[in-house]
Amino acid sequence: MPPPTADSSDIRRYTPEETNGFHNGNAESSKPKANSAPPPIPSTFRDAFIVVPPEILRRIVFSSAKGFSVGAGIKGGLALFAILARFARKKPPRKEIVVTNGEVIVSALKETLRYGLFLGTFAGTFVSMDEFIGAFGGHRRTARWRALFAGAVAGQSMLLTGLEAQHTSLAIYILMRAAVLASRCGIKSKRFGRICKPLTWKHGDIFLMCLSSSQILSAYILYQDSLPASYKSFLNKHGGKDAAILQGVKDIASGKPFTNLHAIKKYYKTTGVDVKLDPNMKVPCSIVHGNQSCGGHVVSFLGQAYKRALPVYFPVYLIPALIVHRKGLLKRPFTILTKVLIGTARSSLFLSVYCTSAWMWTCFLFRIFKRCNIPMVAMGTFPPGLGLAIEKKSRRMEISLYCLARAIESFFTCIADAGYLPQSRRIKRADVVVFSLSTAIIMHCYAQEREVFRSKYLNVLDWVFGVPPPPCETPRCKDT
Fold first, then answer.
1. CB-hemisphere CA count at 13 Å for 465?
2. What predicted TM-score, i.e. pTM, was given to this entire model?
């Protein structure tokens, strides 16, 4: 697929020596002369700076600014909706939470600035390394590995998100994205095509979601400390159950005596329900939904879950629309906003069905087998992943990879805490290493295998980093 067209100001300029005569598409002038010599390498940094065209400096500055705007826009937009939801919350915060609204706003501003600097530095570093290596080593001679190396170096900018905080979830997610791109390259490769053929399975995204669901939802009930703090908070909100209820299910699944039946009764009394709990129960349905039947609980929970999901997905669709379709929004605002509303409604239905079916399937299995244990919880949390079929096909792999990244992190945290991976605790900033490796693969694919990207992602990358030169000026042109 040919690269998208762009203004001439977005294309890197090259001297005749660098392009070996690829000017104005003249194929005859591309043949090197017998007595031609490679361009001289500047001896000092000052000389190198003098020969750098102003377009290169412009590309670096603009890429940094655009990267900052993307990072700050996404993080700031999500933070803004979270703050608005906090202000609109009718129920007062719990007594143990003493964070004021002012502190929340300051924290949101700091996070917005931090992620803006992160992506701005990443974009500026990548473009700088790309141009620097190309200037000293030749753009065509270094093209096969230049983006790979520049992406790895730019990945170190992840440290700007916090020197102490680990960002394992983000690193693993980007690694999953890199793996998808690498697999697409492998599928079209003659050498690796057969090996990668299973990755073309039509419903592989749903299967990955089911696997991820089994680990994530089991951890949500049995071992929440294995989940990232932000994701744990997300699950606690959309799981729709009080901590006392989850503890009760955990006790019976682990085969331990109940430790908080009084707390569960007290919680239900606050909702106007007087529930009776048997300390010798084998099935925790009365703990999960009180005096409701399993079917009645599913219906009522689905409506509540849908209301909770709507505020989550509205910014997820609106913010990218403002960034990706910024020009089309002025020409056809009704069409784009309609797609935003439809996408929000559809994704909210997916999340609400996903959460509802988790409780439905666990109750169903508990009733069938007349018992509740850890394997039963794992089995009951596998089918909810089928709810991903509600989403658009283009979004399924994105969601399944997002959840798979968190499932992998949770799984390894569980086995590490169990003592099976004691050495893993000694690895410091492994997230930065994984992130750098992933960005190296992604940027290499961006420079060499652009057709493996979906158009919407490619448009964003082209806007931030600048459209690469035409094929005749890149690595695909071999010296003759």
1. 28
2. 0.65
